[in-house]
Amino acid sequence: MIVGNGVAGITAAQELRTLDQDGKISIISNEDGYYYRASLSEWISNRNTKAMMAGRTPEFYNQMKINCVTGDVREIDVEERRVWIGKQSIAYDKLLIASGASANRIPIPGLEDSLVFRSFQDAQDIKTSVGCCNRFMILGGGVLGLELSGALHQCGVEEIAVVQLMDHVGGPLLDERAAEWVEARMRKDGIRIFLGDTIERVEKDMAWMKSGATWKFNQFVQAVGIRPQFPEIQGLETGRGIRIDDHGCTNLPNIFAAGDCTETYDPQTEKWRTTRIWLDGARQGRAAAHMMTGNVIENDHPVFFNASLIYTERYAFIGDPHGEEGEVFYRETESALRKVRVHNGRLMGALLIGNRHGMMAMYEAVGNPITDIGPALASPGYAWNDQTGADWDYAFY
Amino acid sequence: MKWDGSEFEKSLQDLTLFGLDNCIGSNDCMIVCPVNRLKINQHELDSVLVSGVWTDRVETFVTECVQCGDCTIACPAGVQRDHMMLYMKSMLPNIPRAWRQYYLLKGRQDQSWLISLYDVVARLMAGPLGKHVDKTNFEKKDLLFYFGCYVFSPSGAPTATLTLADRLGLDYEVLAGVRSCCGWPQYLTGKMGYGQQMLMYLDGLINKVQPKWIVSGCAECYAALLRLKKKTSASWVPLTTTEWLLNHADALSWDKFDGKVAFHDSCHVTKKVGKPQPARKLLGYMAEIAELYDAPENCVCCGYYNVHANHDLNAELHTEKLEKVKEKDANGLVVECVTCWESFKKTFADAEMPLWDMMVAAEFATRGGGK
Fold it and tell me: Chain B: which residues have CB within 8 Å of chain A?
């Protein structure tokens, strides 16, 4: 039994079917089918159609013998091993909770209601309002807020303002130099950016910032992060999310969890941290599926990898490019910014924006000893494949 | 340890799994695909990859994929869709007839009646170059021209290349014929083991010559040489014919063509290896260049590497290219890859639009007879 049909849930279901041809697999969700949440901005900007947003074909679920149940999970009875949906209950042997996360909302005096950017319905609401609103204010200048501002710009919204509490956009994804590069791109497109600021109150259609600045809007969207959502289960160890180990196990027997509803322990920082990355969600779903069938798989590639859009630019965040130790090399042009960090003769991480040439080979190379340490490392032409012996480079030669 | 190529198949599996996990469904891969006439959505591909249940649409699309790599460039999430397509090709339930025909002779080392017949006919077909076709005795030379299968090309590229080398007074050896096929067509249609076998046979032939430089006018052969060099840590340097001639360009006397000519970037050389400039520099010696696209890497593939799975589809690509050449008011199109030339030849011949291989154009421009 899987609760949630996001990337963690669907990956777990797929893996379960691969591991067990005959077992009964059910997915419970209050949304229709698996869709690509991470590409909602592409739908808003009309690059994608609604049909393209579906994650799998309708036939897929039958082919994989996956039973889809629509509804909200009301209660989970651990003793009886039953999931309650309304007045009905379904028995399970093993349960995976992959119920995702919901968008945060910050209460702002004077602002009765605002849109958020998380679900298909949220995107639908934003898309609908694009037709009638031409001044969008986005609270939150992290990756999500920037992606949304890019999508709105691309579909012709005339005035866009982004308010960011930190003193640079992009949150932990960008260092100051990279943030400045992205901010310059945004300003060139006419995006107004309020840095180190927040909204104190709203009067009618006017936002009053803490700094005293004002901005007039006719649509307001909050993009201020997400919080894990999951059904309450007695005895389940939770922090901000359900606490799991590397294999998706919770503290309760026969109950597993994966994806945005979870948090994992980071031995380096000695802190629990929530799962936010698409790829991590998929991997956790796969690992949990193996545990549910009695197998244990090691996470053999723990290197962090995230690639998507920041504003309108493609980026790749590989390993740990912003650590304090070692040497850092930048290469900056009008169309691209590349940062590479090495320490003790090994590649530690890279941030690539605009030009991501060699990114998969770099992903493979993180932690490997490398030669020719110098500014050339940040060049798109650097032969990263030669540093790994693997075939992960784009051209595979 | 001898390189057996098995790591590549493992890489393909890993990349496919990574792609399935990391795909965020932007569908950008399918939007930019030049051969997506069926309007396939990416989720159709992934559904097949996961379930193993093929649909006719997906099967057709996979056979029509030209391995240009545009999908991988477009993906915001870093998914290497071209590798996933290659993996799907290796899993195809049915191999297209056109592919089987294409493989019929390439790389065969046996002594069947078919290959014996080929030995007789091929040498006749190759004319003066016949002496080089699948020969077994080689001299040790620093410079090796590797023509492989394209020794039979009606483009005139092999003859022009050797004429230029003679004009420059160079000493060289030639490796040509279907037995020395580089194996890249097999790689690009998902036949990894087959491709590997051919590449290793080629390695044995190269070792007989012990060259410093190996020159090829086919982008796929060039790609295969790059791979072979990397995997075997060979000391020789692979060059495109363009790179090779550019090194000698100042030793020749050049005449310029009237008007502008357009240049077609090959996917392998320009997009994958990232070398769009040598061709432009060399072409600059003989003509004014009409750029077809706003950036070289935005060029559209010639379509050859669905290996004739759909002639009509490829004809559409060729017609688009022809129209682009006309739109730019160019007097003809120059290519640096013989495979691209083969792909475009019919459409351009029918339209009476000149189509030159770079070596043919260069040989003509250095005859010393004026414009």
Answer: 7-8, 11-12, 14-15, 20-28, 31, 41-44, 46-47, 50-51, 53, 69, 72-73, 76-78, 80, 83, 223-224, 226-227, 230, 268, 272-274
Q: Average of pLDDT values for B366-370?
A: 76
Closest approach of A47 to chain B, Cα-based (Å): 8
Single residue among A200, A222, A244 that ends a domain in this structure: A222
Distance CA B219, CA A198 (A): 55
Residues B112 and B68 in one domain: no
Q: How far apart are CA B310 and CA A93, in angstroms?
A: 50
Which of B15, B23, B26 to probe the A interface (max A CBs under 10 A)?
Answer: B26
Q: A146 with A79, same domain?
A: no
Mean per-residue pLDDT for B123-135? 87
Q: Which residues of chain B have a CB within 8 Å of the CB of A356?
A: 78
Residues A135 and A158 in one domain: yes
**Structure-block tokens of residue A256:** 């597993």
Give residue-wise pLDDT tens across range B4-53.
777 778 888 888 999 999 999 989 999 999 999 999 999 999 999 999 99
E-strand stretches of chain B: 143-148, 173-176, 213-216, 237-240, 260-264, 288-290, 333-335, 355-357
Domain count, chain B: 3
Facing B78 at nearest CB: one of A47, A60, A307: A307
- Closest-CA residue of B relative to A51 is B41
pLDDT, tens only, A306-365: 999 999 999 999 999 999 999 999 999 999 999 999 999 999 999 999 988 888 889 888
* B235 in the same domain as B112: yes
- pTM of the predicted model, to two decimals? 0.89
**What pLDDT is attached to residue B103?**
83
Q: Which residue segment(s) compose the domain that B40 sits in?
A: 6-94
Residue A14 lies in a domain: yes
Question: 């969890």: which residue's tokens?
Answer: A257
Residue B1: inside a domain: no
Q: Does residue B175 contact residue B132 with C-beta atoms inside 8 Å?
A: yes
Residue span of the structural domain in which A336 resides:
312-387
The 10s digit of each residue's pLDDT in A3-19 is 999 999 999 999 999 99
CB contact under 8 A, B41 and A395: no
Residues A382 and A243 in one domain: no
* Beta-strand relationship, A82-85 and A88-91: antiparallel
Q: Is A14 in Cβ contact with B78 (below 8 Å)?
A: no
- Note the ipTM here: 0.87
Structure-block tokens of residue B263: 């240049």
Terminal CA-CA length for chain B:
55
Alpha-carbon torsion angle B85, B91, B96, B99, nearest 10: 70
pLDDT category of residue A215 using cuts at 50, 70 and 90:
very high
Last residue of one domain, picked from the residues B190, B211, B246 = B246
HSE, CB side, 13 Å, CA atoms: give it for residue B240: 27
- Whichever domain contains A63, its CATH number is 3.50.50.60
Is the pLDDT confidence value at A282 over 60?
A: yes
Please indicate whether, in this complex, the C-beta atoms of B46 and A53 are within 8 angstroms of each other.
no
Distance CA A24, CA A384 (A): 45
pLDDT in tens, A132-151: 999 999 999 999 999 999 99
Q: Are A111 and A212 in a shared domain?
A: yes
From B8, B77, B226, residue closest to A308, measured CB to CB:
B77
Same domain (yes/no): B118, B187:
yes
Q: What's the total number of domains in chain A?
A: 3
Q: Which residue of B has its CA nearest to A277?
A: B22
